[in-house]
Every structure is written in C-alpha cells, then in structure tokens.
Design a protein that fits this description.
mainly alpha, globular
C-alpha cells in the first residue's frame, strides 16, 4: 500500500464484497470511530509517557494492539469521508491553514492551553 487512494479503494472493495455498505451510515461509522478511539486510549491507560515510549521494545504484543487500533481509527475515518464525499487530505490541509491563523506562533509557542 503506497497511498491513500489505494487504501481507500482496498477498503471500498472489502466493504462491497461483504455487502456491508447498508450498515455504514456516517452516524454509525462515527460511533464506531469513537469506539475504536476509546480502544486506542485503553491501550495507554495508566501508563507513563516513558512506558508508552518503550512499548515497541518491551511489550511488543501491546504495541501491536496500538498499531491495530490506530489502523481501525484510520479506516473508519476514511470510510466516513468517503461516504460523505469529503477529500480528507484537502480538508486536513485547509484545517492546518485555519489553525495557523487561529493560533499565531507568537501567542502559541510552548503553550498547551488555548489562549484568549
């Protein structure tokens, strides 16, 4: 897999062969996305930043779970965008530009909190 278009087509084929499209409304897909995001969060629950950084080397099975949950999140996100005919890369680029205006560098450097 080399690009988003190929991944999207592979996902479309997967869904079509199984005749799952009727179950994939944006509402249902967004709920599934939230569930997968929660499953990703669960993998990190109670871990320190140091423990998370060492998952790949010290806990490969848990690291594999993280990879799979991230993939699930990505696939549901792509499916929603596809169903709604949204160019996700274009939307992300537009959002970054909007955030650059919303969060000017001088007012945002090293600040995690939203400024007023």
């Amino acid at each position: 897999m080399t690009n988003l278009k190929e991944l999207l087509q592979k996902q479309r084929d997967f869904v079509q062969i199984r005749q799952w499209d009727k179950f994939g409304s944006p509402k249902n897909l967004s709920m599934a996305l939230a569930v997968e995001a929660a499953e990703l969060m669960e993998e990190f629950m109670w871990l320190t930043d140091e423990q998370i950084e060492s998952l790949a080397s010290k806990h490969p099975e848990r690291f594999q779970n993280v990879k799979e949950e991230l993939a699930d999140v990505l696939l549901y996100l792509l499916r929603i965008a596809d169903k709604m005919q949204i160019d996700l890369l274009k939307s992300a680029d537009e959002k970054i530009k909007k955030n650059e205006t919303k969060h000017p560098v001088q007012q945002s450097i090293e600040l995690a909190a939203k400024y007023s």
